[in-house]
Amino acid sequence: MTGISGLIRELLEDRIRGRLFFDELYGEYYFFVPDEPVYMGCFDDYLAILYIHYNDAKEIFSENELMEVALEGFSIVSLSEKVIYELSF
Hints:
Radius of gyration: 14 Å
Number of strands: 6
C-alpha cells in the first residue's frame, strides 16, 4: 500500500513548473514558459514556450492563477506532461 507521501509524489511527478504570461499584443493567448525546456519525443525537440488559447487556459488554470497573471504580469504554475503534449499539437 502506498502512503500519503507516495501518492503526492505520484501526482506531482509528471508536473512541469513554469510561468504563465498573457499575450497582450493579440489578447487571445496565454503562454507557458517552463522553468526548464521540456523534451518532446514526438517532435524530437525541446519545447521552450507553449501557447495556450484563452478559452483553454480558463479550463486548465484556476481563477486565482489567471487573476495573478492579470495583476502581476505572470503566475507560477505547473502543468502535467500529458496536458503539455495535448496542447502542443
